[in-house]
């Protein structure tokens, strides 16, 4: 049986096999297959907090910026920059995250950028998503920078995911 995902207008968007929990939308623009909660979708506004853990560079990292966007929309963005983070350290101030759950709501998109002790800037793709659920409401989400694997591991109450982190071209 071929399962198809449809948008709210009943139009085919993708097959079930094409959709995974993270990384589907390769377009650097807001997700258009869902409807904004402000437009009448039955959605619940929720919040949680995010912290970054430096398991990347034993000498520490600097200019650490973590960003969350609902539907990859710059108008629905929260971000925080920490000036430095020692090895094994956890950011002292949290990123306050606002997200939505319910039928027809969009995805949560994440992006990180930081500078290692040699001055190299690292980042991840701009359209990486890993969605939050009702189980994450009021909790702390961990964003661990894993230098050995060159990836960011996200751990949340509802599960987790990861994304490759790469050197930003000069």
What does this protein structure show overall?
The protein is built from no helices and 13 strands. It is mostly beta strands and 170 residues long. The chain starts with a strand and ends with a strand. Strands 4, 5, 7, 8, 9 and 13 form a six-stranded antiparallel sheet that branches. The radius of gyration is 17 Å and the shape is globular. 0% of the residues lie in helices and 46% in strands.
How much of the polypeptide forms β-strand, as a percent range? Answer: over 45%
Class by helix and strand content? mainly beta
How many H/I helical runs? 0
Radius of gyration: 17 Å
Shape: globular
SSE string = EEEEEEEEEEEEE
- Low-confidence spans: pLDDT under 50, at least 5 residues? 1-9, 12-35
Question: In whole angstroms, how far apart are the ends?
Answer: 48 Å
What average pLDDT do the residues reach?
A: 84
Beta strand count: 13
Largest sheet: 6 strands, antiparallel
Helicity range: under 10%
Briefly summarize what is shown:
With about 170 residues, this protein is mainly β.
Ordered list of secondary-structure elements with their pairings:
Blueprint: E1 4-6, E2 12-15, E3 44-55, E4 61-70, E5 77-85, E6 95-101, E7 108-115, E8 121-123, E9 128-129, E10 140-146, E11 151-156, E12 159-164, E13 166-167
Features:
6-stranded antiparallel β-sheet, 0% helix, disordered N terminus, single chain, 5-stranded mixed β-sheet, 170 residues, mainly beta
């Amino acid at each position: 049986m071929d399962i198809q995902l449809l948008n709210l207008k009943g139009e085919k968007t993708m097959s079930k096999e094409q959709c995974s929990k993270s990384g589907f939308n390769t377009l650097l623009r807001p997700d258009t297959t869902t409807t904004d909660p402000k437009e009448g979708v039955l959605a619940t506004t929720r919040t949680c907090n995010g912290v970054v853990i430096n398991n990347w560079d034993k000498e520490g990292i600097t200019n650490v910026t973590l960003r969350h966007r609902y539907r990859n929309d710059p108008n629905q963005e929260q971000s925080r920059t920490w000036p430095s983070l020692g090895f094994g350290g956890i950011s002292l101030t949290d990123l306050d995250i606002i997200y939505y759950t319910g039928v027809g709501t969009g995805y949560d998109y994440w992006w990180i950028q930081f500078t290692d002790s040699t001055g190299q800037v690292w980042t991840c793709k701009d359209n990486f998503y890993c969605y939050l659920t009702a189980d994450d409401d009021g909790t702390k989400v961990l964003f661990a920078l894993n230098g050995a694997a060159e990836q960011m591991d996200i751990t949340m109450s509802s599960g987790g995911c990861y994304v490759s982190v790469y050197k930003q071209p000069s």
